[in-house]
Amino acid sequence: MRNYYEVLESSPDSSTDDLKSNYKRLILLHHPDKSSNSSKGNEIIEAWNILRDEGKRKLYDAEIFQDQIQQSYNVFGKFTVSELSQPKTCRCSGEYFLDDETRTEILEGEEEVLIECSECSLVIQVTR
Ligand SMILES: [Zn+2]
User: Fold this and answer.
1) Does the pTM of the predicted model rise above 0.70?
2) CATH 1.10.287.110-classified regions of the chain
3) Residue 113 C-alpha to ligand 1 middle, in angstroms?
């Protein structure tokens, strides 16, 4: 998956103003009309069109987050808080147990929490 933040030489923490000034600087160097390597310029425009829009940026951030989780953990599955009123059994026959504190955290706004299996290295993602 293409990283639009890298394309704009910025990071997910960058403000829209920062992104904008990077975009302006980069597009001067790589504008598709001027540059022989026009795909670079098009990529910059594409990145800016997504990241300038708050709604699109949010969706994109969520996609990246999902992507990173799946790359860095072995995810067994994705469940909601109510599906975890009983502990889930892992494929190793260990268990995923949602404690009250974590349950409250999720319900009060944490978007997504990872819970580790009691026996193996798999995790589950828990959402509201
Ligand atoms: Zn397990």
Assistant:
1) no
2) 4-68
3) 17
